[in-house]
Amino acid sequence: MKRFFTLLMLISLTWITTAAAQDTVSVDLSDFVQVKNASAPVISPDGKYLAYTVSWGIVSDTESEYHSQIWVADTEGNWNRQFTRGEKSAGNPAFSPDGKYLSFTANRGESTQLYRIPLNGGEAEAITNIETGVQDYKWSPDGSRIAFTSTDAESEASKEKAKAKEDVTVVGEEVRYARIYVQEIGDEPLEHSAKAVYSEDMHAQDFSWSPDGETLVFSHRETPMLDDGDTGAISTVPADSGTVTALVDMGGADHSPVYTKDGEQIVFLSDGDQPEPIGQTDAYVIPAAGGEAQALAHTFDRNIRSVYVGDESDAVYVTEGRKTLAAMYKLPLDGGEPEMIHSNDAYYSFSDAPTAGITAFTMQMGGQYEEVYVSKGRRFNPVQISNFEDEYVFPEMPKVETITWTSTDGMEIEGLLIYPVGYEKGKQYPLFLNVHGGPGGVYSNTFLGTGAFYNAAFFAHKGYAILKPNPRGSSAYGKEFRYANFQDLGEGDYQDIMTGVDEVIERGIAHPDSLVMAGWSYGGYMAARIATKTDRFKAISMGAGLFNLESMFVTTDVIDYGLGLMGGGYWESEELKQLFADLSPHTRVDEVTTPVQLLHSSNDQRVPASQSYEMYQVLKRMEVPTELVLYPRSGHGPSEPKLSVDVGQRVLEWFEEYLER
């Protein structure tokens, strides 16, 4: 703890500024990753308390890791304090139904286990002791049990082969399923008698208790493979273990089932009657005893992220993106129209339904630090609970503006424009075009003062204007918009992006001869596409980008998503073979003249690092300026604070090397 407060002092000293010195402030990317971020607030059953997770990066000469602990506060805003401590992170807080305990997950041994601690203070006690650790968990309604999911342990045969150095892998031969377990709980010391509630080979995902505690409803798919997530079904099973009863199998991915308050119905999310890999998630309701599922009213984006049960039996609550913001809706079970339960002037993040008349959430905007809030009663009235911003003296946050423009085919496009710190009207600045991943990602109006990955505040302090466009294919703008780049990757969205660049130039903000660009994942694909289609940019940084679509979409761990965007595999028809060639950057690489930096994580399964290797080798032989940087111990993006800082710093240095200013 002493070390942590020393870090906070260093951050504050780095960021202490005066108005007169604001334009010369030294902004270090490592400062941004060490700022606390609050998330996932949950309300106690009696509405008196809330718990939430706080995470931050730890950076020192020998350390580079993300850490999290749990805070507890009263909902009147009188006090707010750290509840868990230690060298190991804690997260996923939940209150016991009687309000006596707070539970959480932590890896304090060889795997992540579930713990509880008395709310009035005391030592944490492990609830579970299962070899492969705990994933998701939920208390039973009466608090006497906890259900959780855990993955099958490695077979004894596999362990013996590993000892004998005979551990060859046959893909798909040994499948390790996630299963649901139930653990009995009392006030006495626990015996860790977790019991699997079914024996069938099915990969469990989301689950929920019935209000009487007799039954569990859960979604499942055939294997743990991510691609099998495009289909799925929902079943029920007695909580004391027994026969699995099929409930829903509509054809697409059926998931996230929850019982209504009265237990009479089950609400779930689904693609519908067929897989929709590009994204379509609507809410449905079905009698708990079985029957025909009925669709509920469509939400704005038709891409619901989560569903929660509140105090009513005639409605549930759902969350999803809404353009550059986010929304929670109250969704009537009779098919009535969804009702947004909050204002739409900030970015709200909800992690549960209103409980005991109280809604808990975090709120933030581009220049406003993310804090925890509650709102009581029927009228939405945020009351701030946390005050982490008081621990820091932030540098000046740049001005953020949501702008719209018209693409070449008349489609309206939206994005975020971040102004350089110290912006002077009439002066033109270098423009950093930053394209998001996905393509179903979206740029939201969230606080700019945290994180290091393409940190907009950092680049704004370095004199850049930043454009973060949401081109066709982005989520949060409705299904039609999300599907608008089907079989058109890097074409219509390229026009959306470039007309956005032109818009910023026409506003007199960006200098037309000082354009740079970076993006990760699908943003990296757009970096490669832009490099093959225009020479307007002085420098480009491609992060985990797609270079060869033929190899990419059969080596990624989300093959069905990629092939869904293309309408099938290149081997299926001459038309599809030609489409892959037309949309793949590698077939136009001879057009590249712009210096291209290539950043990738060594262990990336989403976009294999071979994509960057391939482009690097070609550009080298073409004598186009390039460099390839590989990040260790990481999957689809650097997973440690220092590595994230390195990305931002390298991108800046690459831009500065080729910009003429």
UniProtKB/TrEMBL annotation:
InterPro entries: 6-blade_b-propeller_TolB-like, AB_hydrolase_fold, Peptidase_S9_cat, WD40. The keyword Nucleus does not apply. Residues 454-660 form the Peptidase S9 prolyl oligopeptidase catalytic domain. The keyword Hydrolase applies. One of its GO terms (biological process) is proteolysis. One of its GO terms (molecular function) is aminopeptidase activity. Residues 1-21 form the signal peptide. Pfam families: PD40 (PF07676), Peptidase_S9 (PF00326). Keywords: Aminopeptidase, Hydrolase, Protease, Serine protease, Signal. PANTHER family: DIPEPTIDYL PEPTIDASE FAMILY MEMBER 6, SERINE PEPTIDASE S9 FAMILY MEMBER. This is Dipeptidyl aminopeptidase/acylaminoacyl peptidase.
